[in-house]
Amino acid sequence: VLTYFIGGLWWRLSPPLGLFGPHLLGALIVVAGSFAPFYALRELREHPVISLLAILAGQSFLIRINVTFNYDLVSFFFQYWAVAFMLRGMERRKESLLFLAGCLIAGASLARIPSILSLGFVVLPLTWKDDASPFPRSMGKDKKTSSRTVAVKRMALFLAGFATVCLSAAGIGLASGVLNNYLHGLVELFTSS
Q1: In this predicted structure, what is the pLDDT of residue 156?
Q2: How far is CA 117 from CA 3, 13, 45, 71, 97, in A?
Q3: Rounded Cα distance, 20 and 169, in Å
Q4: Residue 51 to residues 30, 82, 91: CA-CA distances in angstroms?
Q5: pLDDT at res. 67
Q6: C-alpha–C-alpha distance, residues 26 and 73, integer Å
Q7: Is the Cβ–Cβ distance between 3 and 24 less than 8 Å?
Q8: d(Cα 43, Cα 122) in Å, to the nearest integer?
Q9: Residue 102 contacts residue 160 (beta carbons within 8 Å)
Q10: pLDDT at residue 125 in the model
Q11: Which residues of the chain have pLDDT under 70?
Q12: I need a surface site. Which of 63, 64, 116, 151 has the fewest CB within 10 A?
């Protein structure tokens, strides 16, 4: 559903490019998605030109095969950025980035149904080891808590972002009258053999 919306918006706002339009949009999504590892990993920013060229070279298999705009590219784009925001959110201790990561995983799931499996990224905070306090220093709570407590809070923020986007999409679908058709299509998808 989200892929159709993005494609329709591109078709409406871009100049008349004919069949070149979907290819250009696909290429822009691949290039924009290539910046996610650069944003997430501090080590890559020490040598920016070499790092960006290496990342773009790594993405070149997508360009070589098929770069036409499709739901796979949209889903990969959202997943790349979700992991990038999740890593940066844990590194910098910014809850808003963890919430945004959950939102992006929901976007990937709305773009391509099997991408719901990306919700498994919710366990990533369990592997992150730091001595973060779940309370800001300004609140006067200077004591440290267990890493498990911090991980659970981070996981809850991620899931809250996911739920917010899913509920918003359901509300928009309900208001526009397409929610029943979408849910019926999901049932058909999973019950057909």
Answers
A1: 94
A2: 18, 32, 30, 15, 20
A3: 30
A4: 16, 20, 20
A5: 72
A6: 7
A7: no
A8: 24
A9: yes
A10: 85
A11: 42-45, 47, 51-52, 54-66, 130-145, 193
A12: 64
